[in-house]
Design goal:
alpha+beta, about 40% helix
């Protein structure tokens, strides 16, 4: 039953990123993990969202072995697996090619924290990875994509900044579960859009540390007071 529930959560998160305009055609994928069982549920590769059901989703072990499902898993599966193995508190991963976040990734620019909406979700700039080397691309490309993300997060807190821009590629986000990861993907795209507009208007001026801390910590951590308990 627990795996059935995870399938439903992963399907709903995949449909959510479509509803929110983050995905065209099949340009994206969401996964979720059952850490007790060591199983990951992920969107199948190249399957249109409009006809997808929970039975189309693919279940794999953390070594990538397919456990259930007749379809091929997303080609980005190895990236998701690297993130699950290296960020042990996350429960869901989202990858999109959403327009503005991808533009920042193609510009190889981190998204500076210039406003309180950004600070509500990310405790600092959204980082961008180093470009992948020719050897990384020619080798185990998707696995190496995960490794460049992990390298970028050396010295960073993946819980406080649950997003990254892969240089020349696009955004990945993560969260406590698939729904949370999808929510972060939507927030990231909105922040990427507004910050790009601020840059066009003359500059995205960095938020003060005091304001950054206030907005992030009122929603996250033991002293959070935004919203309702247990929601």
């Amino acid at each position: 039953m627990k795996l059935d529930r995870l399938r439903e959560e992963v399907l709903e998160a995949n449909l959510e990123i479509v509803r929110r305009g983050l995905v065209l055609y099949t340009f994206g994928n969401v996964s979720g993990i059952d850490r007790e069982a060591g199983l990951v549920v992920i969107k199948p590769s190249g399957v249109p969202y409009e006809h997808m059901t929970t039975r189309d989703l693919v279940v794999v072990a953390l070594d990538g072995t397919r456990v259930d499902g007749d379809l091929r898993p997303s080609s980005d599966l190895p990236t998701h697996l690297v993130l699950y193995l290296n960020f042990p508190t996350i429960g869901g991963v989202v990858h999109t090619h959403s327009r503005y976040a991808t533009a920042w990734a193609q510009a190889r620019r981190e998204i500076p924290c210039a406003g309180t909406t950004h600070a509500d979700y990310f405790h600092g700039p959204v980082p961008v990875t180093d470009p992948m080397t020719d050897e990384e691309v020619a080798g185990d490309y998707e696995h190496n994509t995960g490794l460049v993300i992990v390298r970028r997060f050396e010295g960073l807190d993946s819980e406080r900044v649950p997003a990254v821009l892969v240089a020349n590629h696009g955004p990945f986000t993560w969260g406590r579960n698939p729904a949370d990861a999808a929510h972060n993907a939507v927030a990231l795209e909105e922040i990427a859009h507004t910050t790009a507009q601020a840059v066009a208007l003359g500059g995205a001026h960095p938020i003060s540390q005091a304001l950054l801390d206030k907005h992030f910590l009122r929603k996250h951590g033991p002293k959070a007071y935004y919203g309702q308990p247990d929601h």
